[in-house]
Amino acid sequence: MPSEASVPQVTVLAGPTSVGKSTLSRYIRATYPQVHFSVSATTRPARPGEVHGEDYLFITDHQFDELLAEDAFLEWAVVHRKHRYGTLLATVEEALADGKNVLLEIDLQGARQVRNKLRSAQFVFLAPPSFDDLVERLIGRGTESEEEQQRRLETARIELAAEPEFDVTIINDEIDRAARELIAHMGIELTTNA
Question: Which among 81, 106, 141, 156 could bridge 110 via Cys, Cβ 3.0 to 4.6 Å?
C-alpha cells in the first residue's frame, strides 16, 4: 500500500443512512490527525451535540443556492427528499495541494458525482452487519420522527443495493476495527494520538 508520503488522494466514504458514517468519521478525526476530513455543508438543522464547522457547515437554503450559483460544490445532493448536502471543491483542492489525504463522508448521490469528476478517488462502502442492525441503529438513535424513520429505511434499502459500485466494503461492526481498516485502505500509517 502507498505510504503517507505518496501522492495524496481523495477517499469517499458512503453507505446507507444510520450505518455510522458520522460516528466513524468523528472517531477518525480524533484518532488519526494525518487524515484531512472534508466538512460538508448542509441545510438541515444541527442535531444535539453537533458543532458547526466540525460536524457540518450548517447553512441556510439561500446560502446553499448562492454556492450552487458559484459552482462551488464538488458534489451536492438532496438527501431523504428533504435537505441538501454538498462538498465544497475549494476545501478539497486546498487539502490535496497541501499534501493531505482527504476523506469525504457523503451519500450515494454525492459519491456518484465524485466518481464522474475524480476518477482517481477511492470509494469505500460502509455497511451494517445486517439490515436488522441498521433498523436498530436508526430507531435507537431517537432523533427522527416515525415518518422520517420510514423514509430513511426506504432510502437505506436503495443505498444498500449500490454496494457493488464501490471499490471496497467495510462492515461497521466495531468502530476501532472499521477505522483501522479504512485508514489502511487509504494507505496511511497506523499511528494514533493515543
Answer: 106
Phi (first) and psi of residue 175, to 5 degrees: -60, -45
Using alpha carbons only, how large is the chain's radius of gyration in Å? 16
Instruction: State pTM to two decimals.
Output: 0.81
SS3 of residue 6 by DSSP = coil
Domain ranges in the chain?
10-185
The CATH code belonging to domain 10-185 is 3.40.50.300
Residue 184, pLDDT > 50, answer: yes
- Determine the residue type at 151: R
The pLDDT value given to residue 142 = 67
Quote the CA–CA distance of 178 and 18 in Å, as a whole number.
15
Assign 38 a pLDDT band (cuts: 50, 70, 90): confident
CA distance between the termini of the chain:
23
What single-letter DSSP state applies at residue 81?
A: T
| 31 residue type, one letter | T
Query: What does the block give as the cell for 5?
Result: 508520503
Q: Count of residues for the chain?
A: 194
Percent of the chain with pLDDT over 70: 93
